[in-house]
Amino acid sequence: MSAPEPAWSCVTCGVQHRPAKTPPPTCDICADERQYVGWQGQRWATAAELSAEHRVVLREEEPDLIGVGAEPAIAIGQRALLVRTPHGNVLWDCLPLLDDEAARQLEQLGGIAAICLSHPHFYGAYVDYADAFDARVFIPRADQHWIRRPSDRVELFDDWATPVPGLTLARIGGHFDGASVLHWPAGSDGRGALLTGDTVTVVQDRDWVSFMWSFPNLIPLDEHTVRQIADRVGEFEFDRVYGGWWGRVVVTDGAAAVRRSADRYIARLNGQRPPS
Known about the structure:
- By secondary structure, this protein is α+β, with helices and mostly antiparallel strands.
- It has one domain: Ribonuclease Z/Hydroxyacylglutathione hydrolase-like (Metallo-beta-lactamase, Chain A, 4-Layer Sandwich).
- It has 7 helices and 18 strands.
- The chain is globular and about 65 Å long.
- The relative contact order is 0.12.
C-alpha cells in the first residue's frame, strides 16, 4: 500500500494546503498583497518536516485559557488559544503543526469541540486539529474562497456564530472581509475577554491596538472600515484583549483601548492630532 499523500504547508505563512504528491506552484494567500512570498521564493514543508524542527508548547494565559504555540516559531509565529468551557473547549486560531505530545496534552485538557479562525493567515493546519479531536470548524462565508484545504468539518457563517454555549464568534471585517473575533464573557475574572488574532492587533504599547489591511506591507485601512470595526467590537463587554502572539495582551480596560485606538487611527488618517 502506498503512503498517503502529504498536506503541504507554505513556509512563509504556515497555511496547510490540500494533500497531493507535489505541492502547488504558489500559495495564493502569500501572493495576495496582504502577505508576501518569502525572499527565497515559494517554499513548502510537510508536517513530518515541521515536526523534525519544531515542537508545540502549551502555557496557561489565565484560568481556562491556554496558549498554544511553537518553539521555535513557525512562519508568522502566532500562538493559538484554547478556551475551556463547561460546554466544550474552543480553539481560537491555529498553528501549522500538531505533534503527538501537544495532542496528548490537549486531550487531557478536555479536547477541542470547535475551532474558530480569525482570518486566513492563521488557518494553519486546522484540518489536522479538527480531525484529531472530531471538532467543528467555523469560517466566515466571506472568506470561503481562501480555504486552501477543504474539509467536511467546515461550517460557514455570515455575521455571528455560537461555537459552544457562552462564546460568540463575530465577523468584524477589515484585515479580511471575514476577519473575526471571539468574545469570552467569563474571561478576565468575569469581566470579559476578546480574542482578536491580529484582526484587531495588540501593539507593542499594550495600552493600544491597531488595524491594518496589510501588516507586513504596512497598508492601512480607511476611516469607514476602522469605525465599523470599533462599532462592532463595541457591542461586547470585555476588559482584556488577547492578540495573536505571546505577550500581546491588553491586560485591562480593553474596550476603552479599542475605542481610543480607533479615534487615534482616524485622526491620523485625516492629518489631525489625536484627541487628548
